[in-house]
Amino acid sequence: MSTRNPWEKMIIEALGNAFTVIFTGTHLLYLIGGVFLGLLIGITPGLGGIAGLSMLLPFLYGMDPVSALAMLVGLVVVIPTSDTFTSVLMGIPGSSASQATVLDGFPLAKQGHAARALGAAFSASLFGGLFGAVILTLIVVIARPIILAFGSAELFMLTVLGLSMVGVLAGKSLVKGISACGIGLVLGSIGGAPATSEYRLYMGFEYLTDGIPLVVVGLGIFAVPEIMDLLRQNSAISKSAELGSGWFDGLRDMIRNKWLCFRCAALGTIIGILPGLGGSVVDWISYGHAVQTTKDKSKFGKGEIRGVLGPESSNNAKEGGGLVPTLLFGIPGSGSMAVFLGGMSLIGLEAGPAMVSADLEITYVIVWSLALANVVGATSCLFLSKWVAKLTTVRYHLLAPFMIMVITFAAFQATRDIGDLVALFCVGALGVLMKRFGWPRPALLIGFVLAAGMETYLYQAIQFDGVGFLAKPGVIIIGVLTVVSVFFSLKFGRVNSEESVAANENEADASSRKPTKLHAQAVFAGIVFLIFVMVLLDAFKHSFLGAVFTGTVASVMIVTSVIVLYKLATGKTDDDANYDLEIDAGYVNNPSISKMRTYAIWFLAYLVGCFVFGYLVTNAVFFMSFLLGEAKVSWKRSGFLTVCATAFLIILAKVMVLEFPEGLIHVASIFDTFLA
Fold first, then answer.
1. In this structure, are residues 50 and 339 in contact, taking their beta carbons and an 8 Å threshold?
2. What phi and psi values does residue 401 have, to the nearest 5 degrees?
3. What mean pLDDT is predicted for residues 349-378?
4. Which in 92, 117, 352, 544 has the greatest CB count within 10 A?
């Protein structure tokens, strides 16, 4: 006589039926098709995540639900894996979920250890994806009460926990890290206030009333500075024509750091389950955890393999966790899950409690299709790496026009407004200066990602519970975890003073650079100070609920900015910012600075051209001019590459039903036939 209860019987039966569906030929074919479509999208910088899923949705109409679901799952799963290519090999985040991987993956590629970085990343991604699927299988039927236990107060404290990671992402100067985080919080507060819908900090520009899109900030703060830096060096990304022989070293790295991968995968699953906190924040929290739990932190940002393993194991596990609120409550756990939810609606599947009762079989089909897609995706990425990595040996002046075209196109997908391009280059300029003066860019991004949710949850928590929300058990538990996080950041986050001393071995040289270095830094720090003053003045124009968040942030950041300025004025800096000594040796007359100015003019001309002549025409002219003027490519070859790039944009526009912005002078009529 069977002792199993009805729930156990239902789960076992649902799992059996699910595996029967998953391993049918049709399901496998569409799953693999979705995986390879995701690979193509993920390899293209900036087009992963939401944009990639959106491209697939029109093709789901009329498809068999099971086949369409297989394609959708295949695409969702593989993008966080395939976008590792561009993050590691080019220093450009493939999507918002791969931004933290850039910090150590790209330096490893430049050192000739791309194979090791990719091997570790794909191994960790596979582990994270399978971990997420297993955990999801076990908790999907008990997740409902757990999710409902998290209210606004607990979610607010989770954002505070996320901000606590700034301490370990701040490098050697904690005040710079806090100030950078403040810049991110301010950027994330632009637009309507959640509580009152008052428009803040938009300076009269209609584009800013909805805030700056995440993809624009991510590409601007990371991709643009890397492109500028590589252009200035006028060399290939990697000097080696080979990926190196570290494939199995990467796998061994994952095995050696298995507990780090396990913890980060668990973090990814948990954060993915919580609505609105997945996506972009999970890799930064995992990266911060990797830094916190490493004794020697000096290698982070310079090619530390743990900085690759942490984010990669969590961002794939996050997809499994994100399915819980998506399937059970119809609440997307992230932006990609929102599009996935739309895809489910298109094929006639309705998210809700039925997914863990009558439709439990479909839920397990999704879960284990996710696991299988991880295996296919990671294996395919390893197979393709040798060919994709050859891009890193091409002289960067040849790749740069294509990279600029891709990131501007990806940025334009945010709102499909010309303002996306303006915002991209403005944030890009900020990113270049932050990299130049050693201000931690990850701290800015984590502040930006958490700003909107943090303010919303705080407002709701106060509205529902008043100040008493601080006494709730969940809030207290998360608060204790935050205090522990900050404690370890302060205790172990400082780098030994000997390292900073080593940077000044040549005292005569250092003293000759110091006035110029401090002068340039002080100007930038002064601008940051003035920005916070302007934010505080803007806060006085709004109601209490509309101003309390930005006003508080600005007040705190004015203090930290003054501390930064004081340290610069007195020479008591506690960091050795990632300076290029060649630049600092002679700031005014240095050839590298002249090159950066030249490329800044190229970018500015590109932006002005988009306003005057339209995006498509400007891109074609820029492509041709840059190849001829900077890359010194022949007319014939430049023309061929320009035609190919323009054709690529036209085809992509047709697929995405997209109209490029037209300029004041409409000279793009020649393309209207193709785009109609």
1. yes
2. -60, -40
3. 75
4. 117
Sequence letter at residue 24: T
Q: How confident is the model at residue 528 (pLDDT cuts 50, 70, 90)?
A: very high
Banded model confidence at residue 497, pLDDT cuts 50, 70, 90: very low
Residues 6 or more apart in contact with residue 324 via CB below 8 angstroms: 136, 139, 140, 143, 147, 272, 273, 333
pLDDT surpassing 60 at residue 492: no
For 36: left if phi > 0, alpha if psi spans -120 to 50, otherwise beta; the answer is alpha
Distance, CA of 182 to CA of 553 (rounded, Å):
7
pLDDT in tens, 547-584: 888 898 999 999 999 998 888 888 765 554 443 333 33
Using CA atoms, how far residue 553 sits from 165, 181, 187, 281, 532, in Å, is: 17, 10, 11, 20, 8
CA distance 67 to 422: 41
Rounded CA-CA distance 161/477 in Å is 11
Asked whether the predicted pLDDT for residue 425 surpasses 80, the reply is: yes
- Phi, psi angle pair for 199, to nearest 5°: -85, 125
Q: Tell me phi and psi for residue 200, to 5 degrees.
A: -120, 145
For the CA atoms of the chain, what is the radius of gyration? 25
Instruction: Quote the tokens at residue 387.
Output: 């060919």
pTM: 0.68
Contact partners, residue 448, CB within 8 Å, separation at least 6: 184, 185, 187, 188, 214, 217
From residue 94, alpha-carbon distances to 160, 317, 386, 488 in Å are: 27, 18, 18, 31
Q: Which of 532, 566, 558, 575 is nearest to 437 (CA)?
A: 575
C-alpha to C-alpha distance for 180 and 173, rounded to whole angstroms: 11
**Rounded CA gap, 442 and 169, in Å?**
7
Give the whole-angstrom CA distance, residue 394 versus residue 572.
42
Start-to-end CA distance of the chain, whole Å, equals: 69
User: SS in 3 state form for 190-207?
Assistant: CEECCCCCCEECCCCCHH
> With 0-12 CB in 10 A as exposed, 13-18 as middle and 19+ as buried, what is 514?
middle
Query: What six digits make up the tokens of 249?
Result: 């070293």
In angstroms, rounded to a whole number, what is the distance separating the alpha carbons of residues 231 and 599? Answer: 8
Judge contact between 75 and 34, C-beta under 8 A: yes
Name the pairing type of β-strands 199-200 and 191-192: antiparallel
Angle at 121 between CA 119 and CA 125, to 5 degrees: 120
